[in-house]
């Protein structure tokens, strides 16, 4: 009886081994997808100075321009645009958006005007540099707004995905005309949650939401070529900080004169002046 059943058992065993419905690996594990992109190189840095930062400023955008620090903050009812004294953290000028439903996001200075994104309101506000106390124009943006910078010719917008949108304002229609879309990836695949952005010498530096890294993106192909690890930065210089879970790294401003970065986070009590050792 055993001999008669053996061929049948062998057939069942072979079938089971080739049946994809019962794989012998854990399919819940992430799968590496080689894409011929080299891993990003670590970017080391030195903290030159630490300044106070408003711990109630939910930082969404940061821009250094002609000796002044501009900051856009979020959250309903208190979203704002500010000009901040770097050394004290105190706003020299502050405009609170009166519409309580607006959630402010990234900012950039483009062609002598300040542009400010909104998160899910599908609006981009425009201000004069010399008067931030009221918008002079409003543009429509169909996607979510997260980060904003520019390369001198185009605005560059992130929407929380792995995409960077190159757009130009169309004054007649008050829409943003898309010029190109860049997908950001490294050797592990596409990098999503792109947030606050800063354009520096042909590269885009980007925060990733809920991530302690800033990535350096080659704008010719979208490849992440560098990475800054800022894990523990705030705690190192403020061991008693009591920031909440939403108080994540977010805010990059570049001073092209000194070649230094200003870095902070949402509701962080500190602003860091950083020099890149291998930019």
Automatic annotation (TrEMBL):
List the Pfam families hit by this protein, alphabetically.
Glu_cyclase_2 (PF05096)
Report the protein name in the record.
Answer: Glutaminyl-peptide cyclotransferase
Q: Which UniProt keywords apply?
A: Signal, Transferase
- GO MF, one example: glutaminyl-peptide cyclotransferase activity
Which residue positions does the secretion signal occupy?
A: 1-21
């Amino acid at each position: 009886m055993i001999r008669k059943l053996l061929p049948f058992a062998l057939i069942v065993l072979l079938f089971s081994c080739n049946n994809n419905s019962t794989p012998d690996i854990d399919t819940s594990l992430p799968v590496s997808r080689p894409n011929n992109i080299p891993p990003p190189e670590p970017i080391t840095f030195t903290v030159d100075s630490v300044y106070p930062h408003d711990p109630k400023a939910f930082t969404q955008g940061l821009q250094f321009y002609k000796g002044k620090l501009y900051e856009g903050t979020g959250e309903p009812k208190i979203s704002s645009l500010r000009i901040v004294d770097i050394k004290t953290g105190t706003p020299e000028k502050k405009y609170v958006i009166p519409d309580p439903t607006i959630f402010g996001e990234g900012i950039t200075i483009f062609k002598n005007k300040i542009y400010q994104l909104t998160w899910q309101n599908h609006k981009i506000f425009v201000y004069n540099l010399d008067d931030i106390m009221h918008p002079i124009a409003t543009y429509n943006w169909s996607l979510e707004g997260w980060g904003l910078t520019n390369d001198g010719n185009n605005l560059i917008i992130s929407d929380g995905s792995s995409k960077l949108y190159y757009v130009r304002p169309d004054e007649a229609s008050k829409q943003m005309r898309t010029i190109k879309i860049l997908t950001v990836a490294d050797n592990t695949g596409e990098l999503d949650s792109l947030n606050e952005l800063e354009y520096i010498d042909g590269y885009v530096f980007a925060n990733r939401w809920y991530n302690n890294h800033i990535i350096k993106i080659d704008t010719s192909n979208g490849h992440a070529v560098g990475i800054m690890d800022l894990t523990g930065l705030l705690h190192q210089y403020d061991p008693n900080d009591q920031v909440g879970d939403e108080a994540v790294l977010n805010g990059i401003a570049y001073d092209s004169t000194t070649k230094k970065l200003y870095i902070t986070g949402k509701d962080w009590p500190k602003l860091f002046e950083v020099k890149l050792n291998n930019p």
